[in-house]
Amino acid sequence: MSEAAIGTPRVPARKKVRPATQDAPLARRALIAVSVIFLLLFLFAPLAVVFTEAISKGWGPFIEVFVEPDAIAAIKLTLCVAAIVVPANLVFGLAAAWSIAKFSFPGKSILVTLIDLPFSVSPVVSGLVYVLVFGAQGLFGKWLAAHGVQIVFAVPGIVLATIFVTFPFVARELIPLMQEQGTVEEEAALTLGASGFRTFITVTLPNIKWGLLYGVLLCNARAMGEFGAVSVVSGHIRGLTNTIPLQVEILYNEYNNVAAFTLSVLLAGLALVTLGIKTFLEWRHADALAARGRRH
Description:
This protein is an all-alpha fold. Helices cover 75% and strands 0% of the residues. It is built from 16 helices and no strands. It has helices at residues 3-6, 25-54, 59-64, 69-102, 108-115, 117-120, 123-134, 141-146, 155-166, 168-181, 184-191, 196-225, 228-234, 244-253, 257-284, 286-295. Helix 4 (69-102) packs across helix 9 (155-166), helix 7 (123-134) runs parallel beside helix 13 (228-234) and helix 14 runs antiparallel to helix 15 (257-284).
């Protein structure tokens, strides 16, 4: 009897197998929904409330806040501190990342741990440490007072405290990037007769410029918004040692909500400008970023 007469057994159709790396549609939508809801609740809603409260009495009081002497002084001090802290952390971050990524030396792991220290220490504690070291009753307080140098409750203390809480940002962006790139290109440049400085400018810096940029932007945002450490060392002196976050606290405690929320809008605006610059540069140099990603 032929196979046709008997009948060929039917082979059950195989189910469409979903790739292991592809999420199910329901899971994908659920994850997206959770992310959007989280952003709406904890990011956009608070920002909307802050802006609404700032203009609750009209645009006149909103604009008047920016011409008050104490607010102007707080804005100037915040920008001044950021202008000092960011370059200082840029130099430190480059030096630390270069040392860790390019050289082997005793205590290397300890250095990496110390760089991460501000992430684990409360900013309030770090500010208190500076008071205990440089305050009037601190370790060097009497010597500083005898020589007419004031650090705590003055701008130098604010700068030092801000440097402490922000110095990991640049280094932490650069260390894994420079470790991944290795030393082959630098060694080739040195072999061809380039000096160390020329090698850094023409080889190393182009390779790390995006990581360096991100680290600088993060450092700048944190420097302008730092509250805990600065609050301890500043003394809250109106017009002298109050940064924008400290001025916001004082105004809020005085029930001057419009002024407090107005300066909060300014802080949020500065953060958004920082984010906008980062996004613009990514868009403007998308081809260079893609080429760099393919190469590494």
